[in-house]
Amino acid sequence: MIPARFDYLRAGSLEEACQALASDEDAKVLAGGQSLLPLLRLRLSYPTTLVDIGRLPGLSGVEDRGDHVHIGAMTTHDEVMRSPVVTAACPLVAMATATVADPAVRHRGTFGGSLAHGDPAGDLPAVVLALDGVFVARSARGERDIPAAEFFVDYLESSLRPGEILAGVRIPKLGEGWGYHYEKFHRTAQAWAIVGVAAAVKRSNGAIQEARVGLTNMGSTPLRARAVEAALRGVEVGEQVRPACEAAAEGTSPPADLHAQPDYRRHLAKVLTYRAIGKAAGAP
């Protein structure tokens, strides 16, 4: 299909982009366009103006900042997954980013664009949520930090305010002793996840000291499997992990679509959580 009519603005500065967004509540940011353009073609989104920030300086790149890694919003997925800083300090981010769509999309799509889009079927929101990432928003008023737990509001809706642009994401370094894994069930290599699980596990003396679990496509936003995290604390790595993972679907509202019904997604959440925790914990 052909998109509905819209105006196009290539912003020359961050200030100009923020002003354009603040003056028109129906304007949308265009970054890599890999999430937005399909919606436009299907006429599921009707922006009055597209504000192109693709050539603005200072919004891309990966930096090691001591206790965290800063990933610029305009950094492409390919750059993120190949970054030695991300691979060393935030391997879960690199793992999940490598599963996003296909190479063509990863070379055009941006890390921040995927997150700001807020699709619960996307791979990255659940990962950043599990790692307690912090979103950095910029506007004419300055910078504002938004914890991941407060960023995703509803389906395709974030807590970014009018006139704000996502400038980057801070991913805390969890330190030594952690293992990571992203487990994804999808129809084809480039398809959205039917269900995905992001897991980070810290072991001590053979037992799980702490676990973090993020769920993809189990509700209108990415979710933390808090019941699983609590049940896994102190559990020996092995078959004792399985009963704890049965709580993976608690508090979720998985969607029904052509690919899967809610009951099937709940079953997948339990199975994939068990697999992800086992691999993150280094179980044989």
From TrEMBL:
Residues 1-176 form the FAD-binding PCMH-type domain. SMART domains: CO_deh_flav_C (SM01092). GO terms for molecular function: FAD binding; oxidoreductase activity. SUPFAM superfamilies: CO dehydrogenase flavoprotein C-terminal domain-like (SSF55447), FAD-binding/transporter-associated domain-like (SSF56176). Keywords: FAD, Flavoprotein, Oxidoreductase. InterPro entries: CO_DH_flav_C, CO_DH_flav_C_dom_sf, Diverse_Substr_Oxidored, FAD-bd_PCMH, FAD-bd_PCMH-like_sf, FAD-bd_PCMH_sub1, FAD-bd_PCMH_sub2, Mopterin_DH_FAD-bd. This is Xanthine dehydrogenase family protein subunit M.
